[in-house]
Amino acid sequence: MTGTGTGSRTDVRAAAPGDGSLLLDDQLCFALYAASRAVTARYRPLLDELGLTYPQYLVLLVLWERDSISVRELGAALHLESSTLSPLLKRLEANGLLRRERRADDERSVALRLTRDGARLRERAGTVPLAIGDAMGLTPEQDALAKQLLRLLTANVTEG
Amino acid sequence: MTGTGTGSRTDVRAAAPGDGSLLLDDQLCFALYAASRAVTARYRPLLDELGLTYPQYLVLLVLWERDSISVRELGAALHLESSTLSPLLKRLEANGLLRRERRADDERSVALRLTRDGARLRERAGTVPLAIGDAMGLTPEQDALAKQLLRLLTANVTEG
DNA sequence: CGGTATTAAGTCGTGCACAACTTATTAGGA
DNA sequence: TCCTAATAAGTTGTGCACGACTTAATACCG
């Protein structure tokens, strides 16, 4: 009786994606939610040294790539609403990392321009992805696979 | 000159996990952050009908599995602090889904017990995982793989 | 037993995140 | 042209999420 007897069939707690399980640990959504918060927590001490929060860091990643974009374009890149970005951008401006100026050709739009300090922060941030990548501890293949699956998931869930 | 000339080597925007790229779309952390919010957004209309937020739904998933646990145990299951859970649990109590009672044998601890309404909500919630699983659109293999990778990532990032 | 350390829960302040709404500006059609 | 739609950004209210701290109760050690 090594199999603990009855129920070896029902002992299957494997997580079929489409089954109706209400067990927390069967849910991909929870694995996702927990992982996202865990990664953000890992960033926190590093970003504290730069005086940034995690969403602020993401904003700067975008602006370091292409400066002088609008709030709308930034929101499209990060999948965030203006109601989230407006106060966040005000804080970044108050901290002297960027300026917000109405565009002359379209007064509805606000252009975001890095200040010298904002641009310079890029160098200090250079070590952050390495440190995080290290902490994540995934192989290049696992990392690529995870990104691929997450993008597929996001695309599927966003449409319809 | 079909290769757009110079730079065909540097055109490799592939995302090595440990490279120092500061490009937003190379970052696993952003894929994770975006996916987590996208999935939560997909849950929202379904949970609205149950009068729940997503974190509240997660709390109920735990309580439907094992009722009468403490705030501490709940926090361990969800990886959440008491400073997050206390107000959330108050709202669930105000909505009549659970009761909080100090344990007689240890007055520091608070036991969470589902009310009849809280227990009954489980039936109405039964269709939620199916609907979400469907919207996610992953094969069983992809789903299992994603969960596996996310759990590995969480474990790696949480330690040390 | 007494006193200190530990633990459990909760409060407070800050910063997202988003829905619903407002304001201002531009676009486009009758 | 006017005038209605659509668009961009921002405001407001609610609910997380977490660090730092507080309060109360239990554990443990000399």
Put the structure in a nutshell:
Two copies of one chain form a homodimer. Chain A has 160 residues and is mostly helical.
3D architecture notes:
Chain A is mainly alpha-helical and 160 residues long. In chain A, 59% of the residues lie in helices and 8% in strands. The first copy, chain A, has 7 helices and 3 strands. A 3-stranded antiparallel beta sheet of chain A has the order 1-3-2. In chain A, helix 1 packs antiparallel against helix 6. Chain A is globular and about 55 Å long. The N and C termini of chain A lie far apart (50 Å). At the A-B interface, helix 1, helix 2, helix 6 and helix 7 of A face helix 1, helix 2, helix 6 and helix 7 of B. The structure holds a DNA duplex (30 and 30 nucleotides).
**Total count of helical runs of at least 4 residues of chain A:** 7
Overall number of strands of chain A = 3
Give the SSE order of chain A as H and E letters.
HHEHHEEHHH
What is the helical fraction of chain A, as a range of percent? Answer: 55-70%
Biggest chain pair interface: A-B, 68 and 68 residues
Distance between the termini of chain A: 50 Å
Largest sheet of chain A: 3 strands, antiparallel
Q: Strand share of the residues of chain A?
A: 5-15%
Q: Outline the low-pLDDT stretches of chain A.
A: 1-15
What's the gyration radius of chain A in Å?
A: 21 Å
- Spatial strand order of the main sheet of chain A: 1-3-2
